[in-house]
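Hi, here's the filled form for the chain we discussed.

Project: internal
Contact: R.S.
Residues: 87
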Amino acid sequence: QLFSFGSKITLINFLEFFSHALDTFLIGKLLGSKTLGFYNRAHILIHLPMFHMTRSMSTVLFPSLSKIQHEPDRLRKVYLSAITLVA
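And the returned structure, exactly as it came back:
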């Protein structure tokens, strides 16, 4: 059972990696390395603020949520507030 579950997760992770790398591969192959470099920098610039915000939130939320893990109502409220903020 464990192997079946693990193999499915591995396959899903591989497909996600491939789908995220497909645009980079196609741009590099069809439009060249210079265009790929511009695309890469723009992609990083767009995603950088969200990356820093979620990373900062996770370093604060993980210990905080672990402290209230035995209070399901409070945990649910804080978790939904954090998800709403990120969304």
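Let me know if anything looks off before we file it.
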